[in-house]
Amino acid sequence: MLKGKKPLLIAGILGVLAAIVAFQVMHRHEKAWAERNRPVDVAVVSRDVQEGEVLNWDMLARSQMPAQFMTGSVVRPEQVSNLVGQRFAVPLKAGDPVQWNQFRSAVTFDRLSSMVRETGRAFSIDIGGSAGVAGWVRPADHVDIMGTFQDPKDNQMVTVTLMQNVVVMATGSQSVSSMANLLPGERREVGYNTITLWVLPEEAEILALAAELGTLRLTLRNPHDMSSINALGKTNRDTIFTGVRAQEAYQRRLPMLPTVDRLTSRPPESAKP
Fold first, then answer.
1. Which of 173, 158, 165, 174 is nearest to 199 (CA)?
2. Assigned domain for 122 exists
3. How far is CA 199 from CA 87, 116, 145, 203, 204, in A?
4. pLDDT per position as a tens digit, 208-244
């Protein structure tokens, strides 16, 4: 009796397994379809907009679009505050989504030479990684330039600050104007191995020779810091071992620590949202 029913039993089990597999496949497809069509909040214009109009809160509305059509160029409602006050570069119809590339750059230059102030020069140096402050240097930042060389008098390695408060015009091929057109998050992804600085012709000569003789490094400074050190001196093996310069620098740095701590410390737990 059982031998005759065995094929039917196997067929029944296979049928159940096939049904389970089909259900799981269908469920995955339904889940993927639901995710692709999940509504995402976007910012849209509430009326027709002409080219050149300034974006303000009154002309904005909240709408939704399927997630599959959402790209990084579409502005979300929580990002609108970054664009209010900017001018549209293209006309829009009521209900059109707001996109980052629809706005005029606050500063536009066709060529880098347009940014070079008269009597100045744009000069590029090969620098990257830790020598370029680990990629934190951006166009319009202010930097000091250090050089490490072999002193011909005693063959010791020596480091000196060559220039102070130098303005960065570009990092790689990215200038101030191109940064204004980047989408949020893209700035952190741009890498570079060269930095272009605004210098005087004689400073360009100094940097050109310094780059041939040794290694250049940058230090990033606050753009509002107009101070300079007249007697920079130099650091060599002797000053490192004696610690004299380090101690003198520490005494100057000590009064600044409270301010630095406020800028770099984490907010207290009660202040966190």
1. 165
2. yes
3. 33, 9, 12, 6, 6
4. 999 999 999 999 998 888 887 766 678 888 888 788 7
Q: What is the extent of the structural domain holding 210? A: 112-233
206 in a domain, yes or no?
A: yes
Q: Supply the pLDDT for residue 3.
A: 56
Asked if 122 and 84 sit in the same domain, the reply is no
Which residue, 95, 85, 107, is CA-closest to 49? 95
How far apart are the C-alpha atoms of 208 and 187, rounded to whole Å? 29
- The predicted structure's pLDDT at residue 271: 43
Q: Please indicate, yes or no, whether residues 79 and 167 belong to a single structural domain of this protein.
A: no
Cα separation of 124 and 95, whole Å?
46
Task: Give the mean model confidence (pLDDT) for residues 245-260.
Answer: 76
| pLDDT score of 188 more than 50 | no
What pLDDT is attached to residue 18?
75
Please tell me whether residues 119 and 228 are part of one structural domain: yes
CA 89 to each of CA 61, 96, 169, 181, 210: distance values in angstroms, whole numbers, following the listed order = 19, 14, 25, 12, 44
Residue 13 lies in a domain: no
CA distance 80 to 2: 73
How far apart CA 93 and CA 46 sit, in angstroms, is 8
**Which token pair is 2?**
């059982």
Q: What angle do CA 173, 176, 178 make, to 5 degrees?
A: 60
pTM of the complete model: 0.54
